[in-house]
Amino acid sequence: MSTxxxxxxxxxxxxxxxxxxxxxxxxxAAIAQVKSELGREIPLQIGGEKIFTEAKIRSINPGNLDxxxxxxxxxxxxxxxxxxxxxxxAFESWKKVPPHERAQYLLKxxxxxxxxxxxxxxxxxxESGKNYAEADADTAEAIDFLNFYARExxxxxxxxxxxxxxxxxxxxxxLTYIPLGVGVIIPPWNFPLAxxxxxxxxxxxxxxxxxxxxxxNTPVIxxxxxxxMEEVGLPAGVLNFIPGSGSEVGDYLTTHPKTRFISFTGSKxxxxxISKLAADTAPGQIWIKRVVAEMGGKDGIVVDETADLDAAAxxxxxxxxxxxxxxxxxxxxxxxxxxxxxxxxxxxxxLTKQLEIGLPEHxxxxxxxxxxxxxxxxxxxxxxxxxxxxxxxxxxxxxxxxYYIEPTVxxxxxxxxxxxxxxxxxxxLAIGKAKDWREAIALYNDTExxxxxxxxxxxxxxxxxxxxxxxxxxxxxxxKCTGALVGxxxxxxxxxxxxxxxxxxxxxxxxxxxAKLTSRKL
Length: 522
Ligand SMILES: NC(=O)c1ccc[n+]([C@@H]2O[C@H](COP(=O)([O-])OP(=O)(O)OC[C@H]3O[C@@H](n4cnc5c(N)ncnc54)[C@H](O)[C@@H]3O)[C@@H](O)[C@H]2O)c1
Ligand SMILES: N[C@@H](CCC=O)C(=O)O
Fold this sequence. Notes:
Elements: H1 21-35, E1 40-42, E2 44-46, E3 49-51, E4 56-61, E5 64-73, H2 77-94, H3 99-115, H4 117-128, H5 132-157, H6 159-162, E6 171-179, E7 182-186, H7 194-205, E8 209-212, H8 219-231, E9 239-241, H9 246-254, E10 259-265, H10 268-279, E11 290-294, E12 299-303, H11 309-321, E13 331-337, H12 338-353, H13 372-388, E14 390-393, E15 408-411, H14 418-421, E16 428-434, H15 437-445, E17 452-456, H16 460-469, E18 474-477, E19 513-521
Parallel strand pairs: 1-5, 7-8, 7-10, 8-9, 10-11, 12-13, 12-17, 13-16, 15-16, 17-18
Antiparallel strand pairs: 2-3, 4-5, 6-19, 14-15
The chain binds nicotinamide-adenine-dinucleotide and 5-oxo-L-norvaline.
Nicotinamide-adenine-dinucleotide binds at residues 186-191, 195, 213, 215-216, 246-247, 250-251, 254, 265-267, 270, 273-274, 294-297, 328, 423, 425, 451, 493, 497-498.
């Protein structure tokens, strides 16, 4: 009997309804608990050894700059090399662990994370500035990745039974997906648990060992995941936790001859740099490094005159301002046909004005942006926007002891404007007018990115055409362009949005394996 038969089919972890009093209270209690433990020193984790360094990353609450989340030890090149040696050594035994056994570690971790869901979410509320629902969705997605990739590894290991090779008389032929080696995992801060867990767990369940360099803004939640994997008994050296500077540790490992693959999610600029550095072969290197690079977006929503305009306006606002617009999938552009333009714009502005700004732990709709550099960059873009469009609401800083910015809407923006073309990664929406729905789609497609998009219409013929002509990795109809679900919406983008790896999809683990064909003469 196949091993997958013993496991229930994959199901997405349900989201918590914080309108229910007990759920809200449970989250408040978790936040209080996490707050009582803030400010700890966090070690590196290399080959089972915990190492505290003098140099530290101070992780702070972006919504309350006086609050320190933790002091995280920081790797340098010497420690990165030590981690590489630990990972190389662990690979020799980990690669021999059968796939279904490797999967058990992920399943155990998923179970524990589900039991402690609010604890993980509460830490993200404080470290990344997510409100309750955004943090809860992040944790749910992390649980999904663990459950999904565990099942996927088992499925791949049974591929010869489910997708047999064409029989060749006189031969016994098998295809096996074997691991690659040591990988460097470089996640972003904006899904500080889900993306970190997804990238790491996919690589290790496939039989690789990894060096996890978390984003410097959110290393404490990343450590909580590394500690969970230790708790479930993952052998030492399989997951090495090495926070550090992107340019120092990142470049060192990207160019290292023993690095077999790099799994990166982050900005276009860093992704292209990694891709370029990894293409060079270092002395002693005997393979072509594999690079999985998921990068930025300039996503958008197209609305035609037949659409449900209330639903479209709500989707535009949710996609633009959810987690302060700091999603690669954020709908930072909207293109509306002229006959309904004024009406939709009015609805969007009215909904935006209702968004409350404030501390994430008080569960306000809009919290802070992640750090001072982002804050300044976004405010600069808002000034550019004032030259490029008509400011309808927002337009500057908001009150609070953190990096708060008003949700900002510009209308009448030309498709070639900078705020229509460049990823701002903040709460800024640019709206453009189109003479008809085909022109709106052409405006939507006029970007170097290609990650997510939505088309709002009630016309079936137009929907069919839009499904073909809107060019992006994740295209939605009559719904927001954020919020992909593991399994249901494999996620990844075209063009400068990356390598279209389709995280949470059936192709994903193939990126961390190599297929070996064995043919035996009978
Ligand atoms: N396509 C996707 O699936 C996806 C998902 C989430 C975020 N993103 C994108 O990520 C960006 C926001 O995240 P960010 O600010 O963390 O991105 P970033 O590129 O600044 O950083 C990403 C990671 O790269 C590391 N890094 C920086 N310089 C490096 C170097 N020289 N070598 C190796 N690593 C280096 C950082 O420390 C971090 O861990 C946005 O552009 C967003 O669109 C994309
Ligand atoms: N997968 C997430 C976006 C991840 C990037 O930030 C979504 O679909 O909204």
